[in-house]
Design brief:
Length: 814
């Protein structure tokens, strides 16, 4: 049904008028094994501060019946039910049905292709609970939620408050869950299906993991690591926030066709793509750890303390992204987490912050539709980096003291940015108003460089509006020792303005600005010595110092100051020297991207061959074989190289699929190989791997069929769409791909279908990478003007990236 997006003004008016006492929500899932229906009865008890006044409740499902204090209400319009004649104390009862559980918002039914079993998950951020039942769907109207769920007898049901009372009802069971603490509607969840469950008691916590039955063996493989990480995270956060997680039970549910992960209180939902079908690589293991710790941090930042309105979304997402790296480094085996953050997410943030979608971390949000558009690289990795700088700026001990005070003061309530700034400023003894204005209310990236002023060193700094932000920067002095650099000194400089004196010992062979990566700023080599930077990058002694140098090289590539050939040469040199598994995979991905997407067409084959050679060499290193062969699979340049890869892959189904994708892209015959691999691959999602093989083929008929399935029919789950889309946009197929530029624009009006995660995913992944020119990018920007905010923002981000690629492709060698 048509819906209106809740505005900030409406939310403030409603919050001033009412307070919600509790929700009692009965949900019936018994139609789902054969049908699409989710039936709900939402009973909301709430108080009104002005008896006789009028407001509305959100309900975007089909309303069967609605009463307020036993009085029938008028039908819903625009996803709202008018509540007039309010009493001081009110009981609202709304019976509703959601029939669109295939492509709709809030609730999704997935059918496992392996065995036909049905699973259902719910996910409500930012305001999608209203698509399933009636609620006051805004973050500052928190209340206990008590769920009663009727499901088929063979199903398991999970929700926020853990263990339920289960009653047999013939062919069904009724699951009655205890009321939650006060939560915003978007923090609640129901997941259900014939789930495989594993439980373990660790450090006093009752921990559970769940997945579909066809992935039971993989869940069993990974459960021990997940339980260890969960206990480590709960212990770390309980200490640094001065508040243990208040609930003994903590569940994590891996569901099919889910995008990403969602921080529901006490019951996190994950995409089961995180249960890697092949043995996970080091980077994949670290990613699982960081996502786990990110969602866990939300138990405090988002669930226990919730932002009042979406303008402070960063209080949730940026803090969780910061905290997951902090916790990984301090409490788990993933001690290079900040290095991998720099090698991946932070580089994405630097690009976004220097393009058309740049915005302040804390930004005014007029309505919820606009809020959905800022779940982006500015809010997440830039926000995380800014919070790391804040901890550096006030000192870690003061930061921890401020966090403890924050949760003690605001637990189970709602806050604004100023509440956090006040406690951290008080704990650190600093006035943070200038810091807040510079870092949170100003868009753009600072630029830092070292200059010599006579015999003295000076750090020059400028911000987006002129003067730099308040920040503490590390500067390292290095001396060459053979083919390596050794750090001889490190100073932390508090930026005082455009020019800040730096005291370092004389005689350094190389100076590294932003050493230890403590701030969010782009840098350039002193005196324009690009050659010195390229030579120094692989010689630096740590993953983080090498990463700072690579970040500068990447930034120079995307701004047109460095050719693809020079950038790739540096990245491959760093890979040959790299000792940290945390960054090997991101750098191999970067190398493949540079060769495929940034290189001029005349240089592409040569640079791709260099990536293939690097992958082949790295495959001989113990522990890096799988990662290196994946890179080789992407870059193999001939049928003979694909054949070599297939020999190396042996029985490894994942590498087998990658080899087939590359063979298809090179024009080889793959039908027999696909049929054979489908017959022996136990992965229930293997058909989507087969579709990726078809997508890569330089064949017009296959391109058309894959586009229909992927983009038009959306028969590919969002969790599997990425590899299919990547194969579709294969380099060197410009003539075949050119017609899909216009077809992409035809999709724009409906790309927001299904909610925020599918909207972002499909807008980004389907965006043309080849067969387009700058004129198309201009047309795309104009066409996006009337699209939903999340589509418009994602498209503008993607168009900026491709525009930079086109200019790099046109640049050639210098």
């Amino acid at each position: 049904m048509p819906t209106r997006s809740l505005t900030q003004s409406e939310a403030e008016t409603r919050a001033a008028l009412i307070s919600v006492e509790r929700y009692d929500i009965a949900v019936d899932l018994t139609d789902l094994p054969t049908g699409p229906l989710v039936r709900s009865v939402s009973t909301v008890t709430f108080a009104c501060r002005e008896p006789g006044a009028e407001t509305f409740v959100d309900c975007a499902a089909e309303v069967v019946a609605a009463t307020l204090n036993d009085r029938p209400l008028a039908p819903a319009a625009d996803g709202r039910i008018v509540l007039d004649g309010l009493a001081g104390h009110n009981v609202l009862r709304v019976e509703s049905v959601q029939a669109d559980t295939a492509t709709g918002e809030g609730v999704h039914k997935a059918v496992d292709p392996a065995d036909g079993e049905v699973y259902v998950w719910m996910s409500f951020e930012p305001d999608e609970a209203r698509h399933v039942w009636a609620c006051f769907d805004q973050p500052d109207l928190k209340a206990p939620h008590a769920f009663t769920v009727t499901a088929p007898a063979g199903w398991t049901v999970t929700s926020n408050s853990g263990r339920a009372r289960v009653e047999e009802r013939g062919t069904a069971r009724r699951w009655t869950f205890a009321a939650t603490p006060p939560l915003s509607p978007y923090n609640t969840v129901i997941n259900a299906g014939p789930l495989h469950e594993i439980r373990r008691e660790v450090d006093g916590w009752d921990l559970g993991v769940f997945a579909r039955r066809s992935l039971a063996a993989i869940l069993e493989r990974d459960a021990g690591e997940i339980f260890t990480l969960t206990a480590q995270g709960l212990g770390f956060y309980g200490r640094v926030f001065g508040m243990p997680f208040p609930q003994r039970r903590y569940d994590q549910v891996f569901m099919p066709e889910f995008g990403g992960a969602m921080e529901n209180y006490g019951c996190v939902t994950w995409s089961d793509a995180f249960l890697r079908r092949a043995e996970p690589t080091p980077a994949e293991r670290e990613l699982l750890a960081k996502v786990l710790l990110h969602e866990m941090a939300h138990m405090w930042f988002g669930n226990i303390v919730t932002m009042r309105w979406w303008e402070d979304l960063w209080l949730n997402e940026a803090f969780a992204e910061f905290a997951c790296h902090w916790a990984a480094e301090r409490a788990t085996a993933y001690s290079d987490a900040w290095a991998s953050h720099l090698a991946d997410g932070k580089l994405t943030a630097y690009l976004a912050d220097q393009g058309p979608i740049s915005h302040p971390i804390s930004v005014a949000i007029a309505d919820v539709a606009e809020a959905a558009s800022i779940f982006d690289a500015i809010t997440y990795p830039k926000g995380a980096s800014v919070l790391q700088q804040l901890m550096t700026y006030v000192g870690e001990d003061s930061f921890v003291a401020g966090m403890t005070a924050y949760f003690a003061r605001h637990a189970w309530g709602n806050t604004t940015l100023q509440d956090l700034v006040d406690v951290l400023g008080a704990a650190g003894g600093r006035d943070l108003n200038a810091w807040r204005k510079g870092w949170l209310e100003t868009a753009g990236t600072d630029r830092l460089m070292l200059e010599r002023d006579g015999g003295a060193l000076v750090l020059t700094a400028r911000g987006p509006g002129g003067g730099p932000r308040p920040q503490v920067v590390g500067i390292g002095a290095y001396r060459r020792d053979g083919d390596r650099l050794t750090r001889t000194a490190l100073v932390r400089v508090e930026v005082q303005g455009p020019r800040t004196p730096v005291e370092l010992p004389a005689g350094a062979d190389f100076l590294l600005v932003n050493d230890d990566d403590l701030t969010f700023a782009s840098t350039r080599p002193a005196a324009g010595d690009t050659a010195g930077l390229l030579a120094a990058a692989p010689a630096l002694p740590t993953a983080l110092s090498r990463g700072v140098a690579v970040a500068t090289v990447w930034d120079m590539l995307i701004t047109g100051e460095l050719t693809a050939g020079d950038a790739l040469g540096c990245v491959l040199a760093v890979l040959r020297a790299e000792t940290s598994d945390a960054v090997i995979e991101p750098y191999l991905t970067m190398a493949g991207d540079i060769a495929e997407l940034w290189a001029p067409p005349a240089e592409r084959a040569g640079l791709t061959a260099a990536v293939a050679a690097a992958g082949r060499d790295l495959s001989e290193q113990r522990g890096r074989r799988r990662v290196a062969l994946r890179a080789f699979a992407r870059a193999a340049g001939s049928p003979a190289e694909v054949a070599w890869l297939r020999e190396q892959a042996g029985d490894d189904a994942d590498l087998g699929w990658r080899a087939l994708v590359r063979e298809a892209a090179l024009g080889g015959e793959t039908a027999g190989g696909v049929a054979a691999l489908l017959a022996r691959d136990p992965d229930p999602d293997a058909p989507w791997r087969a579709l990726a093989v078809r997508a890569a083929a330089p064949d017009a008929g296959e391109k058309a069929a894959v586009w229909q399935a992927l983009a038009v029919d959306r028969s590919v789950p969002v969790s599997s769409a990425g590899p299919v889309a990547a194969a579709f946009w294969s380099p060197g197929q410009d003539e075949l791909l050119a017609p899909y530029a216009g077809r992409y624009l035809d999709l724009l009006p409906g790309l927001d279908r299904g909610g925020m995660i599918p909207a972002m995913g499909y807008t980004r992944r389907l965006f043309p990478l080849f067969g387009v020119d700058e004129a198309f990018l201009d047309r795309a920007g104009a066409a996006a003007a009337t699209a939903a905010p999340v589509v418009r923002k994602t498209l503008r981000e993607r168009a900026d990236l491709v525009r930079r690629m086109l200019r790099s492709r046109a640049g050639g060698s210098r």
